[in-house]
Design goal:
By secondary structure, the chain is α/β, with parallel strands linked by helices. It has 13 helices and eleven strands. Helix 2 packs across helix 13 (about 300-310). It is globular. The mean pLDDT is about 95.
């Protein structure tokens, strides 16, 4: 591998496409198994965009931001297709690391012992250079946190943290950069579970009065949810991001629009695999909501869903 020139991960750009929209409509008409559900997801997301009184939530796990699908999500923010983001701490890690360095194509079948000795982390079939990840984040975040602290910052909610990190990233390919530029709040309910979280912990060990205030985030989420007329969510993957989105939706009677995209199964009772119909029993999705459950890898279907909604929505 040392003699092979690695291929960089490149972000996908989102554009309206009549050809894609026509194809998705044909998939709906064809009545194919998950093809039909893909089309339903695109149509429901289109309806969310057309509903001016609907708050549009986007939730996703961290790994997506390590892939070129990050570009689709960034363009969804740029094109006003998202109002609120709920994600995992690692999304911040990958966004910053890719703003300051490169990730590379790999394979699921590589020798992980060799990769470890060569200084690469393997994320599925992607390669993350060790030096571009943890050490790079530590090198930039510690002095940055010291500067914030010197200006009197003793407590940050994750929404505020993400806004400030977006300015630090200063990269037009960055999710954090565009979210702060378009004033799309990002909430991270599990902020310590990642490289950025580790740096926050390390900094707090040197400054005992510094803290991440997640309760502040919950107050903001409460305001957003209770001030909304209707709410919809494009829920990609599972975990804490999915659960937190649904958890808040139940306090307003449930989502009016819900699209799940997951590869997880429901037989083990996990939240990640729970289908959208199960959320109805919890009051997290309304009984008469427009909803669908798409069993697919997000990297294979999101470009089609987003492009369809962008092309078909009357805005």
């Amino acid at each position: 591998m040392t003699k092979v020139k690695l291929e960089k991960v490149v972000d996908i750009r989102l554009e309206p496409s009549q050809e894609v929209a026509d194809l998705v409509d044909k998939m709906y008409a064809a009545g194919g198994f998950m093809g039909r559900h893909l089309a339903e997801a695109g149509m429901i997301y289109r309806d969310m965009l057309e509903d001016k009184k609907c708050i549009k939530f986007l939730s996703f796990p961290a790994a997506l931001i390590a892939t070129g699908t990050r570009g689709v999500i960034v363009d969804m923010i740029k094109k006003d297709m998202v109002d609120v983001i709920i994600t995992a701490s690692g999304a911040l890690d990958h966004d910053l690391a890719r703003s300051w360095g490169d990730y590379y194509h790999g394979s699921f079948d590589l020798d992980d012992v060799k990769l470890h000795r060569m200084g690469y982390h393997r994320l599925g079939n992607l390669l993350v250079p060790l030096d571009e990840y943890g050490p790079a984040i530590e090198k930039r975040l510690q002095p940055w946190l010291e500067e914030l602290y010197s200006h009197g910052r003793r407590s940050l909610g994750t929404e505020e943290l993400c806004t400030l990190l977006g300015r630090l990233a200063d990269d037009e390919g960055s999710l954090l950069y565009w979210a702060q530029k378009k004033r799309v709040p990002i909430f991270v309910p599990g902020p310590m579970d990642g490289a950025v979280g580790s740096q926050l912990w390390l900094f707090a060990n040197k400054h005992s009065d510094f803290q991440i205030d997640v309760v502040r985030d919950e107050k903001r989420l409460a305001d957003i949810v209770f001030d909304s007329k209707r709410a919809g969510a494009l829920v990609m993957g599972g975990g804490i991001s999915k659960h937190h989105t649904l958890w808040w939706a139940q306090f307003k009677g449930g989502l009016d629009y819900a699209c799940y995209i997951t590869t997880a199964t429901e037989y083990d009772g996990s939240l990640s695999g729970a289908q959208v119909k199960e959320a109805v029993s919890w009051g997290k999705v309304r009984e008469r909501a427009k909803k669908t459950n798409l069993l697919a890898d997000v990297t294979t279907v999101l470009p089609f869903i987003a492009s369809y909604a962008l092309t078909r929505a009357r805005r």
